[in-house]
Amino acid sequence: MITTETLTKYIQQAMPDASVSVTDRTGTMDHFNIRVVSDAFKGKNLLDRHRLVYSALAEPMKDGRIHALEIKAETTDGV
Amino acid sequence: MAADPIIEEIEREIKTHKILIYGKGTKAAPMCGFTRETMQFFDKYGYPYELIDALPNPAKREALTKMTNWPTLPKVFINGKFYGDTDILDPMEKKGEIEPLLKEAFK
User: Fold this and answer.
1) Would residue B106 count as lying in a domain?
2) 3-state class of B64 per DSSP?
3) In this structure, is residue B38 part of a structural domain?
4) What is the pTM of this model?
């Protein structure tokens, strides 16, 4: 279980420009859909974009605060 | 240095199955919503796929994570190449990239 604020903070530690929207899928605050918009994704393919998000969230994923994650990763120009 | 038998096993599995999902549970009883979603994704296309349960083997799970630099299950391989999970496959499908990829794999 993790709050939206804490989750967002983890992402922004890695990608300071990121805007993050979080949806709780199950009402238990550990299964999330997240959409991250950041120019850190520019020039990166989808696999590498997701790797970036996973590495930003490595800690809460490892200790189980985040159980499942669906990711959308976009740049500010919508690519 | 002798090759790691776990890596050898994974490489053999990736080579053997054109579509391979490392997931949680079995086809009859998938134990994770994402694994089930991934099966449903491939069910639409009608090509055979294999699901290998990575839960009973933590060492293999760890080796897979290192190999792919991808922390979560399921992990999908098509024609020997890593494609992540449905977060990656769904946008590829929207762009019409899955059908040709599978056709090529099974030709």
Assistant:
1) no
2) helix
3) yes
4) 0.90
The β-bridge partners of A31 are A68
Give pLDDT tens digits for B32-78: 889 999 999 999 999 999 999 999 999 999 999 999 999 999 999 99
* Pick from B71, B88, B91: CB nearest A54: B71
Angle (CA) B92-B94-B99 rounded to 5° is 65
Q: Is residue B67 part of a domain?
A: yes
Question: Does A58 reach chain B within 8 Å, measured CB to CB?
Answer: yes
Residues of B in CB contact (< 8 Å) with A are: 32-34, 69-72, 82-84, 87-88, 91-92
Domain tally for chain A? 1
The answer to whether A54 contacts chain B (CB < 8 Å) is yes
What residues of A are in contact with residue B65 (Cβ under 8 Å)? none
Q: Scanning the structure block, which residue is given the tokens 């769904």?
A: B90
| B87 → closest Cβ in A50, A58, A61 | A50
**Which residue from A43, A42, A44, A61 is spatially nearest to A34, judged by alpha carbons?**
A61
* DSSP SS3 for B19: strand
